[in-house]
Design goal:
Shape: globular
Number of strands: 10
Strand content: 15-25%
Order of helices and strands: HHEHEHEHEHEHEHHEEEHEH
Strand order of the largest sheet: 1-2-3-4-5-6-7-10
Length: about 290
């Protein structure tokens, strides 16, 4: 009974913030920075809840930090529109300081598309300068061996993002087959929504490929076909409780970052609902 109450409480909290966002829009975002500081209860999970920077593609980093703080998410995968490739060392330092002021950690960079060796070089130099140990990447197939050498040179893990049936890497299997014989730091960023859109079960694939899964983009989709679209986490066809149980079963220690592709101009409602639901599932399935 206790776990069920926790589930309802947390999911309802997400819905409450989501509803407020729909009513007040940008005013809620403006007020977000002034709310009292709160501290999360210590987590017993090995995995962490984060946010893919792409979710806030229509917002600058200050607005993004405010929204992350409001929903109590403390890990961010950094996109270059928030921290450009050509940022100076001082700008990178200030970026991390702004995150740290709200107890947020920039843990990785990407997704970064790479079509030439120079773009690979630029991405690894960028990751080293930013100070992260993981790149979420989408490399041209001809670059796999070159990326593999850079992984060895920089000692940075490289997680290839699957993007559904329209992409050259539609699902986890398509990436596993290409990296399984390469350096063990070559792996996957498992996008559970796109994996489902490609007709593959993300729960099954997490179990199969977890030794090479370095990052996870969590979301839900409306159907398990190419027509599926991103939706709030509690409303789609992916079995999120089963996925959480599998995270525990394989002892996943990375970040589960929400990548909410819906409502790019005003994502906070869906983001809050999704994070609230995911936390409720975590409590209810313990």
């Amino acid at each position: 009974m206790t776990s069920r109450r926790n589930f309802v409480r947390k999911a309802s909290a997400g819905l409450l913030v989501a509803g407020a966002s729909s009513v007040f829009g940008s005013g809620l975002r403006a007020a977000a920075g002034s709310r009292p500081e709160t501290k999360s209860a210590p987590s017993k999970e090995l995995f962490k809840i984060g946010m893919a920077g792409f979710t806030f593609r229509s917002f600058d980093i200050d607005q993004t930090i405010q929204m992350l703080d409001r929903i109590d998410v403390r890990y961010l995968c950094i996109k270059d529109f928030h921290l450009p490739f050509n940022s100076t060392d001082e700008e990178i330092k200030n970026f991390h300081a702004a995150l740290a002021a709200k107890r947020i950690t920039g843990y990785g960079v990407g997704p970064i598309y790479m079509n030439t060796e120079k773009e690979v070089d630029d991405a690894f130099n960028y990751a080293r300068r930013v100070g992260v140990r993981i790149i979420v990447g989408v490399p041209a197939e001809k670059l796999f061996r070159y990326v593999n050498e850079k992984v060895k040179q920089y000692d940075i893990r490289y997680a290839i993002h699957n993007h559904g049936p329209e992409d050259k890497y539609p699902d986890a299997t398509s990436i596993w087959e290409r990296v399984k014989d390469l350096d063990p730091r070559m792996g996957l960023c498992l996008d559970v929504g796109h994996n489902m859109r490609a007709g593959k079960n993300p729960v099954t694939d997490l179990k199969r490929y977890f030794p090479r899964i370095f990052d996870i983009h969590i979301k839900n989709v409306t159907e398990a076909t190419g027509r599926g679209e991103t939706c709030e986490m509690g409303r789609g066809v992916i079995d999120i409780p089963a996925f959480v149980k599998m995270l525990r079963s394989v002892d996943y220690t990375g970040v589960c970052s929400l990548e909410f592709e819906k409502d790019g101009k005003d994502p906070l409602a869906g983001v809050a609902e999704s994070i609230g639901y995911f936390r409720g599932v975590i409590d209810a399935t313990r």
